[in-house]
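Format notes (please read before filing issues)

Several people have asked whether sequences and structure tokens are stored in separate files. They are not. Every record keeps both together, in the order shown below: the sequence lines, then the token lines. Line labels are part of the format and must not be stripped during preprocessing.
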Amino acid sequence: MDDCAESTITTTATLEVTKVATVQDVNGNSQNDPGDIINYNIRVENKGNVTDADPNDCCLNLPVVLYNSMVNPFINYKIAGSIWYQGESNQERAVEYEYLLKGLIEDWRKNWDSLKLPFYLVQLANYRKENKVPKESKWAEVRESQAKVAQLKNVDLITAIDIGDADDIHPKNKKDVGKRLAKLAMHYQYDGELQKSPEYKSYTIDKNKVIIEINTFGSNLKCSNKYGYLRGFAIAGENGKFVWAKAYIKNNNQVVVYSKDITYPKFVRYAWSDNPGTLDLVNTDHLPVLPFRTDTFELSTAKERYFFSPHRF
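Then the structure lines:
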């Protein structure tokens, strides 16, 4: 280590990145994200004490470096599946993250010669201060990308949106994360009971209310607070300006959302925030409903794409 600490590291490589991910959806159909092939000629020199280097200036953050050093050496070992808990540093390109993660899954399955290799994802935890009014959220966009990836065969996810820490990007509560992941593994690989977070299915508009139908996967919806309040909902009319909404459980799989300020509602968002605060909508297994939106507005990171820079993650 001492010999390396004062050395000069020079890396020269040509990297070809294809922004096309071919994967299979839940029906086995190929899904492609069209893009361009980009060639990068990379040369990096780090001099001096590596331990004092700015991690953003270090070659460890260059494309393929971490993979070649930390994943590739294990390809000849048999594995039963993979847990993927990451996404925070991709918030600036949250929409693109869907295709990056799909590409990673496809690549790992190919390298391990297992097209059915299970992947269990961890949806980003709640982080930062709560918003006083509804607004756009890059972390919510990452969570949506993660949920889309979970629609692939042999891929599923748990959410950590209720067990994070507003002041810590790496929350300490990993015990509940592990328990939720274990429930997925026990079901899919050991024929255990399915216990997973409910997720959005569809919506209908009834006068000044929006009725949300939730896929509960055999469980029932419940409110975790004694007053019956469901926090975390926002509603908007045709103009797309969201305001906080009131909501209540109608039956085992439906939620009614409304606001006195929106006479003709069109869209609903739930837990659409870096940190949506306390969430009360859970199932009988005490697992939170996944965040969602009913609108199809272009997201804030939709046009952001990866470009190479040694100073950028």
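For reference, the curators noted about this record: Residues 1-26, 30-53 have pLDDT under 50 and may be disordered. The chain has two domains: 2-190, 199-293.
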